[in-house]
Amino acid sequence: MSFWNSRHLKARKQHICIYCNKAILPGETYWRETGTFDGDFNDYCLDEVCKVAVHKFVENGEELGNLFESLTAQGIVECPDCKSDYVSFKRRENGTHKYHCTCNRCDREWEIEITEEMINEVVK
Ligand SMILES: [Zn+2]
Ligand SMILES: [Zn+2]
């Protein structure tokens, strides 16, 4: 028997998002996920953006690590100069949804922040 419970709550104390390590501050809304998966009991918090990433992208049969590649493959993220989708990226730091991007064609560097809207674009 497996069960899963996903609750949308308002934080009364600080929590940490399990996926990106972002601090969820008191007063902010977040998702509390509890349940069993593959026989393991889970209890963790997700911030709003990671909730969308995990539950739309992953449930669509994709690996979370491929999220950024899907953003570039679908043209949601592209080089602001040459419009190339051949982009390298790395997460800027723990605890944010910001990524540092480098265009592999013209070497332009820029920063983006992944939003719920971008993830919704990928999975629609
Ligand atoms: Zn997160
Ligand atoms: Zn470029």
> What is the first-to-last residue Cα distance?
31 Å
Number of beta strands: 8
H and E order: EEEEEHHEEEH
Number of structural domains: 1
Summarize, please.
The protein has 124 residues and is α+β, with helices and mostly antiparallel strands.
Task: Describe this structure as you would to a colleague.
- With 124 residues, the protein is α+β, with helices and mostly antiparallel strands.
- 20% of the residues lie in helices and 35% in strands.
- It contains three helices and eight strands, in the order βββββααβββα.
- Strands 1-4-5 form a three-stranded antiparallel sheet. It has a three-stranded antiparallel sheet with strand order 6-7-8, with no helix packed on it.
- The longest helix is centred in the middle third of the chain and has 10 residues.
- The protein is globular.
- The two termini are 31 Å apart.
- It binds zinc ion (2 copies).
- The site of one zinc ion (ZN) has 8 residues, from loops.
Write the layout of secondary structure elements.
Blueprint: E1 4-10, E2 15-16, E3 23-24, E4 29-37, E5 40-46, H1 48-57, H2 67-73, E6 87-91, E7 98-103, E8 109-113, H3 116-123
Antiparallel strand pairs: 1-4, 2-3, 4-5, 6-7, 7-8
Helix pairs in contact: 1-3
One zinc ion binds next to loops.
Key phrases:
124 residues; alpha+beta; first zn-finger domain of poly(adp-ribose) polymerase-1; 3-stranded antiparallel sheet; 3 helices; 20% helix; globular; binds zinc ion
